[in-house]
Amino acid sequence: MNKIFGANISYRVCNYLKEFLNNISSVEIANQKVFEVFGIHAFFDSSDDFKIFMESIYSLNIDLVEEPDRAEYGDFQTNKDLADKVVKYLLLKNVSPEIIIEPTCGKGSFIIASLSNFKTVKKIFGIEIYKPYVWETKFSILDFFLSNPDILRPEITILHNSIFDINFKNISKQYQTEELLIIGNPPWVTNSELGSLNSTNLPKKSNFKNQKGLDAMTGKGNFDIAEYITLTLFEAFQSHNGHLALLVKNSVIKNIVFEQKRKQYKISEIEKCCIDSKKEFNVSVEASLLSCQLNSIPSVECTALDFYSLEKKISFGWLNSKFVSNIAQYSKTKNIDGVCPFEWRQGIKHDCSNVMELERKNGYFTNKLLDEITLEEDLIYGFLKSSDLKNTVIKNTRKYTIVTQTKVGQETSYIQHLYPETYTYLKKNISFFQARKSSIYKGKPPFSIFGIGDYSFKPYKVAISGLYKTYHFTLVLPQNDKPVMLDDTCYFIGFDKIEYAIYSIILLNNGRTEDFLKSITFYDAKRVFTKDILMRLDLLNLAVEISQEAVKEQIGFLNDKYNLEINFSKWGDFIDEMKPEKEKQLTLFG
Ligand SMILES: C[S@@+](CC[C@H](N)C(=O)[O-])C[C@H]1O[C@@H](n2cnc3c(N)ncnc32)[C@H](O)[C@@H]1O
């Protein structure tokens, strides 16, 4: 293989073009000849390209251009075998397109797979931002036609453009009646990854989910570029007869089905065909083929299958007003889907672990920079991270943190007067705080933290890690008479009475809760548990449903194992506490 313009070109194509374009000096004539024989429009973008190409091909210049860093382009090229399998799967579903659009065609695997399998294609559009890939796609098409001389040659346009500059609605208007296939594998990159790479490879309207304020700043406004591209394609082509088949991250498919309730795109037969991304792309990201029918009655559910065996796994999506990850399992536990009587909170966010995560040594603290520090005790609290929440009851913490505020935005100048050692330490390390990128810290007092309020100081907490995929809750007890804090990867509910915390943990670690949570959470999500998910747990209904004997048995077990002295006597008060305000008043006056 040689390279021209940074693109692989086979000897066959090289030799063919040498002869085919021999003695041609005009780019227009060259382009006309290529179009007549191969159907490819504007093969050479400019006369400069043509000139360089001809010089390279005659001197067989081996292009030694180094591959640039392409992280911002979410570049994971589909191997030929997978592209071929995807197309064969579509053939099985009787997909027979006349127009094909590959929105970010890369080196062209899906275009070649389409050319070799579909017999009805009249026109192909490919779009790609990276010029060497545009060339590689064109060379591969020539190579394909040269080795398959009898195969159908549709009109082909490979555009060297950013997809964000393409007006798909124009293409949509031109081809309203033809059977359409949108096929490909859009970039695997999120807007926040692009932000940290200072990349502009973004749609112009990048907060396209219209999230406001904190949600937009803290990640709920984070989205995959592939999701934006898929939705743009739905906007333009939902009313065309045809099909869409794109390889995307599982999170993108989940978001699309979630949004379907609101957007009502005319798509149906939505499928998530799970692929092995480690094998296909050598990455550990859960991804699938998203397949759906266009121009149909909007569906709000999706069937998950194994792409290789086509074995059906589960269905997920909307069941009336509820979004669930496993429709069959959800039906069995749906009566505990409601509103949690206690508010789930996220732990402390400081984005400054080097300075704020401490360990206690003999009489002093150490931080992640291994500094030895003396600090006043008052602002120091035991601190737990997701990885610490393994046991059912935690009485001691490995780490500590400095709680600089009791509520968000509180002035921190008091630290200097009341806790001079703590202040000296924080001041010495102020550059770490100032380097925090998130805009939530802008304009806030120095050493500010988030996820702090009265609730943080409740002595008894029931917590779960948002990151780990374990459906297990942990009781966090105070340490040296001080409440223990959790970090922002954890969620918790807080109590003043230990009994309420124990009753809650018994309910939360019950098999029914686990079954319910499994039917509404997505195992492959980055954060399996979120506040929205946990707030759906109707602990009151569960408490009414569960046998009191089972609760008593669990209390006995926890007492024995963790040396506690809890009894069942406050169960009635606990149930009352969970009742909605109105009901409580009725019992009071009834
Ligand atoms: C995941 S790769 C897949 C390529 C090809 N579809 C395939 O299946 O092999 C994504 C491709 O999108 C291209 N890309 C990234 N940003 C783009 C943009 N704004 N416009 C067009 N193409 C883009 C990348 O260069 C890369 O080739």
Characterise the protein shown here.
Strand 15 and strand 16 form a beta hairpin. With 590 residues, this protein is of the alpha/beta class. It is built from 24 helices and 23 strands. Strands 5-4-3-6-7-9-8-10-11-12 form a ten-stranded mixed beta sheet, sandwiched between helices. Helix 4 packs across helix 5, helix 5 runs parallel beside helix 6 and helix 13 packs antiparallel against helix 19. The N and C termini lie far apart (87 Å). Helices cover 37% and strands 18% of the residues. The protein folds into three domains: 58 residues, no CATH class; 249 residues, Rossmann fold; 245 residues, no CATH class. The radius of gyration is 30 Å and the shape is elongated. S-adenosylmethionine (SAM) binds next to helix 5 and strand 4.
Keywords, separated by commas or semicolons:
single chain, 590 residues, alpha/beta, Rossmann fold, 3 domains, 10-stranded mixed sheet, 5-stranded mixed sheet, 24 helices, elongated, binds S-adenosylmethionine
Which helices and strands, and how do they pair?
Blueprint: E1 2-4, E2 7-9, H1 11-20, H2 27-38, H3 47-59, H4 80-92, E3 99-102, H5 109-117, E4 123-128, H6 131-147, E5 155-160, H7 168-174, E6 180-184, H8 191-196, H9 213-218, H10 225-237, E7 242-249, H11 250-263, E8 267-274, H12 277-281, E9 287-294, E10 301-306, E11 312-319, E12 322-324, H13 327-333, E13 345-346, H14 353-356, E14 359-360, E15 365-366, E16 372-373, E17 380-384, E18 393-394, E19 399-402, H15 414-418, H16 420-428, H17 430-434, E20 460-465, E21 474-476, E22 485-486, E23 490-495, H18 498-508, H19 511-520, H20 531-534, H21 539-545, H22 548-562, H23 571-578, H24 581-589
Parallel strand pairs: 3-4, 3-6, 4-5, 6-7, 8-10, 17-22, 18-21
Antiparallel strand pairs: 1-2, 7-9, 8-9, 10-11, 11-12, 13-23, 14-15, 15-16, 17-19, 20-21, 20-23
Helix pairs in contact: 4-5, 5-6, 13-19
This protein binds S-adenosylmethionine.
